[in-house]
Amino acid sequence: MLDLLLTLAVAASTILSTILMLLPSRYIRPSPPKATSESSGAVDEPKISVQVLVLGDIGRSPRMQYHAMSIAKHGGRVDIIGYKESTPHPGLLNNPLITILPLPPPPRILRSNALPFIVAGPLKVLWQIWSLFHALGYATKPARWLLVQNPPSIPTLFISAVICFLRNTHLIIDWHNYGWTILAGTRGATHPFVTISKYYEAVMGRSAPVASFTVTDAMAKQLRNKPYNVRSPILTLHDRPAAIFQPISGNEARRAFLKCLPETSAQAESIMTGKTRLLVSSTSWTPDEDFNLLLEALCSYSGSAKQQPPILAIITGKGPQKQMYLERIAFLKKESRLQNVSIATAWLSTEDYATLLACADLGVCLHMSSSGVDLPMKVVDMFGAGLPVVGYGNYASWGELVKEGVNGRGFVTSDDLATVLGELFGDVEQKQLAKLRKGAIEEGKRRWDDEWGGVAGRLLGLCE
Ligand SMILES: Nc1nc2c(ncn2[C@@H]2O[C@H](COP(=O)(O)OP(=O)(O)O[C@H]3O[C@H](CO)[C@@H](O)[C@H](O)[C@@H]3O)[C@@H](O)[C@H]2O)c(=O)[nH]1
């Protein structure tokens, strides 16, 4: 009997020791040094170390890329972890303080619609759990901070909390929106997954982070109340334009760019003289943006009895519903409902995307906000480029971003949008657009760096 007990004790202690040895290493102050520059043999140590996590395409996650660049700019070491599907922001590449760690994408069968959601969903989550755990726990050095984008929240928030516990890391959740409201948009508000997801997000939000950032004041206020009841500090960090978004420097620069860009080259002169109006919208082609609103408005504009200037509409971005809308556009063209309107879609380099916004006459935003308290980054890009915006504005936080008649206009229905387009583009002297442009330039003056330093920089101990 004693022999058996002894054998069991040895086995249990061996298993426990093995588990302990296999656990991810822990963060110990100061952060592990990494050489950044060597002058007279001295090695600069990064001030802090941060894992920046987004369970999405890094290149299409502007806010998380800006976080990474800001941390590095202030001397912090960053591992940015996410999918690498498109080219990341140039500021991330070749930066000695920033390492990009790509997550392996789930197998093709889980990404296609071959399996029902009830099977593919959990399998995809299992895949993500393992890849996240490996990336955060083993493929990267221990860090003082983990800054995680929410949503997606499953399984990101849970894995982040476990990793922070194991590695002695402080967790910050960067709330861009809520996962459960997005899920409700596709599955319906009463779907059991939506309820589970809501309470999971509330529990994780309440228990896991040492602090949270939100994109609006309205969201911060919600998080302090039921069902979230977050008690750790919540700091609003409004999206602001990055330095790459600037108003165009003059007519010659505008003409040169419009002539070079394949989507605008044929109509460059006509846009320059104001005969054709250049409208730009950007999107991730997700179900929370109803492009039918824009298409219907363009059809009404096109069918108007009034003589109105032709429109060239360029929609930029990548995403799941793109093909569906391309088919819809082809149908409307075939039906001759887009007479004086041309529509092109594109995915541009970050530089070209920024310059196109600066060269356009009007930006359109169809972001509908599943939660009512997030805000579209694209409008911020547009203001940075000095571009006035017309956007869907029927949600609580819209007024935190766009001032009606000062830097943009809001709409609710496609008829409203058609009316606004008629008013702005039908104004031969372009006085209204000029006024809005002035407001957009003014709004775009406060930049990401100014906003970030006072909120995130201070929390991380990088700025005064
Ligand atoms: N390089 C490049 N980027 C593009 C292009 N077109 C769009 N983008 C990028 O895609 C973004 C728009 O993507 P959305 O997914 O439509 O984002 P959003 O609605 O404007 O805002 C998102 O981020 C916010 C936080 O920053 C969230 O609050 C919001 O819920 C949403 O997730 C733009 O800001 C821009 O960075 C392109 O042709 N080229």
Automatic annotation (TrEMBL):
Its EC number is 2.4.1.142. Keywords: Endoplasmic reticulum, Glycosyltransferase, Membrane, Transferase, Transmembrane, Transmembrane helix. Its main location: endoplasmic reticulum. It comes from the Eukaryota. It is an enzyme of class 2 (transferase). It is found in: Endoplasmic reticulum membrane. It is a single-pass membrane protein. GO terms for cellular component: endoplasmic reticulum membrane. The keyword Transferase applies. InterPro entries: ALG1-like. Pathway: Protein modification; protein glycosylation. GO terms for molecular function: chitobiosyldiphosphodolichol beta-mannosyltransferase activity. Gene3D superfamilies: Glycogen Phosphorylase B (3.40.50.2000). Participates in the formation of the lipid-linked precursor oligosaccharide for N-glycosylation. Involved in assembling the dolichol-pyrophosphate-GlcNAc(2)-Man(5) intermediate on the cytoplasmic surface of the ER. This is Chitobiosyldiphosphodolichol beta-mannosyltransferase.
